[in-house]
Design a protein that fits this description.
Elements (H helix, E strand, L loop, with lengths): L1 E7 L4 E6 L5 E8 L3 H8 L6 E6 L4 H10 L3 E5 L1 H7 L7 H13 L11 H33 L12 H9 L4 H33 L2 H6 L7 H11 L8 H7 L4 E6 L2 E7 L5 H14 L5 H13 L1 H22 L3 H9 L14
Parallel strand pairs: 1-4, 4-5
Antiparallel strand pairs: 1-2, 2-3, 6-7
């Protein structure tokens, strides 16, 4: 059995091959990031061969192609690799050797690899969210131009039909008018792209039964339901609801030693998109009666708005976990959660 560590970069790949005893069999400092070249370098090793690489920006294409070529490929968490094998000397050959050795000793902190369909859905939904954010920035720029000219918008929505009519007639300096018109044209173009993407999202949501259950949560629509499913992947990979909350970056850090315990800020999110979506959903749920609102209001005065929002999002995340585990709607799950089994009090036998 041979173990290969690959340190990926944009312009080259550094490789190291170890045998089952940990002896270096082959090394390559600068392999071109071309599949044919890499397969040619690995071919003399024969089979079986296991490959380890870090989850950098460039891992997906190489993982998919090496897996299709028959190799066992594991993808490591970069931060956990750094914690396990911290060294003062850090070079590309050292990193490649480190990955191969961790794989050989079964200590590689491997991540869960979503299938191709899940990754494609993530790309689609994250792309839609990115375009919406771009449109938001463009709109904010237009409003900044108006504010600089001390123009007060007479309508609540500047980009509604009435707002656009007012914007077409307001008198602005020539240079400002030119920029505003260009940005308005860009907003219209982005509106068309978002509308087209929303149609595809709605069709996909109608064909996904799990999305219908998640849409019963107030504040979660077709896009939010599909993004939840894409970011979570298979719910079976999380043993408890708290593991899912930790993956979403909603669990505070804890330091306990010598009888003293201190809680810090929340840890890094395994999926920043999942954390963002849950926090956005809380903005709706905190205005509606229910346990999420109760959690938010209970902590608002003592902890402040940011911490109360994160705590409410953590509670919602746990609800999402059990909804997906049990296949229940939001109202149905809350209803059964509040039902308590009344057990008769058993008399304790007296001691003679």
């Amino acid at each position: 059995m041979y173990y290969v560590g690959l340190d990926l970069h944009k312009k080259y790949v550094t490789g190291c091959v170890l045998d089952s005893q940990g002896v270096v069999v082959a090394e390559q400092r600068r392999l071109p990031p071309v599949l044919e070249t890499m397969l040619g370098w690995l071919a003399p090793l024969g089979q079986p061969v296991a490959v380890a690489l870090e989850a950098t920006l460039y891992w997906a294409w190489l993982h998919d192609r090496l897996t299709a070529a028959g190799y066992q490929v594991a993808v490591a968490h970069p931060q956990q690799v750094k914690l396990i094998c911290h060294a003062r000397c850090k070079t590309d050959p050292v990193d490649a050797h480190k990955l191969a050795d961790l794989l050989r000793t079964d200590l590689l902190p491997a991540i869960w690899i979503p299938d191709a369909a899940t990754r494609a859905r993530r790309t689609q939904l994250r792309g839609r969210a990115w375009v919406v954010r771009m449109r938001t920035r463009v709109k904010a720029r237009i409003q900044a131009y108006l504010a600089a000219e001390n123009e007060r918008v007479p309508v609540s929505d500047l980009f509604s039909r009435g707002g656009r009519a007012w914007l077409a007639t307001v008198v602005l300096p020539a240079a400002v008018r030119e920029q505003v018109d260009r940005l308005l044209a860009l907003v219209e173009q982005l509106d068309g792209q978002i509308a087209e993407q929303d149609r595809a999202v709605r069709e996909l949501a109608r064909a996904t039964p799990e999305a219908a259950l998640l849409q019963t949560i107030p504040g979660i629509g077709p896009f939010g339901a599909l993004l939840l499913l894409a970011e979570i992947g298979t719910i079976a990979r999380f043993g408890t609801s708290h593991e899912l909350a930790a993956y979403a970056g909603l669990v505070p850090s804890t330091r306990s030693s010598g009888g003293k315990t201190a809680h810090g800020s929340v840890g890094p999110a395994g999926s920043a998109w999942l954390k963002w979506l849950l926090v956005e959903a809380v903005q709706t749920l905190k205005r509606q009666p229910g346990p999420v609102r109760s959690q938010y209001e209970r902590l608002l005065r003592a902890k402040g708005k940011p911490k109360a929002t994160v705590a409410a999002a953590r509670k919602l995340c746990c609800y999402v976990y059990w909804m997906m585990q049990e296949g229940r709607s939001y109202d149905d799950w809350l209803r059964q959660r509040h039902q308590r089994e009344v057990r008769p009090i058993q008399a304790v036998a007296s001691v003679a």
